[in-house]
Design brief:
This protein is of the alpha/beta class. It has helices at 21-32, 39-47, 51-73, 94-101, 111-117, 133-147, 159-172, and strands spanning 10-14, 35-38, 80-83, 102-108, 150-153. It has a five-stranded parallel beta sheet, sandwiched between helices.
Length: 176
């Protein structure tokens, strides 16, 4: 059986829940013609259950293990725009995987704006947990910055504007 090629030039979007990763990745995929991989959707499809159910049945650690396995599988797919879950950086094992897969774009947004953008909080297990959302945000903030190759401030911007800024940054670096 021939070995599968490993792809190291994906464009991966990270950021806190509500930062616009899903919407911006869809728009950026459309703008660039690159295929789209949504890690959370991929997990749900592979697991045959929704993210909240995985959290309820296996806890956050169980979900993070599944997330890591799913992320590792992306290395064998063609160049894509990858929308990552907001907590993907929580597992230290994921950080070098993200970097190895390609260019990491951090969509930065203030916590208040991020929470205000969330239309279905019941689908966000971290919002219904015992920890305040601000605590989770502050814990993740330095890790997002550490992993990111590019940071785009999304505060007050439309999806189209953020996607345009992403594309401009990627073009400027010769990545598109």
């Amino acid at each position: 059986m021939p070995e599968r090629a490993i792809c190291t030039d994906h464009i991966l979007l990270i950021g806190f829940m509500g930062s616009g990763k899903t919407s911006v990745s869809r728009r950026l995929s459309s703008m660039t013609g690159l295929s789209l991989i949504d890690v959370d959707q991929r997990i749900e499809a592979l697991q045959h259950r929704k993210i909240p159910a995985i959290f309820a049945q296996e806890g956050e650690q169980g979900f993070r293990r599944i997330e890591t396995h799913t992320l590792e599988g992306i290395r064998y797919e063609g160049r894509s725009i990858v929308s990552c879950g907001g907590g993907i950086v929580c597992n230290p094992a994921n950080r070098p995987i993200l970097k190895a897969l390609g260019t990491v774009v951090y969509l930065q947004v203030p916590v208040e704006e991020a929470v205000g953008r969330i239309t279905h909080p019941e689908t966000r297990p971290m919002l219904s947990g015992p920890r305040p959302v601000e605590e989770i945000y502050n814990e993740r903030l330095p890790v997002y910055r550490e992993v990111a190759d590019i940071t785009i401030n999304t505060s007050g911007l439309s999806v189209q504007r953020v996607a345009t800024l992403c594309r401009r940054e990627l073009d400027k670096r010769g990545l598109l």
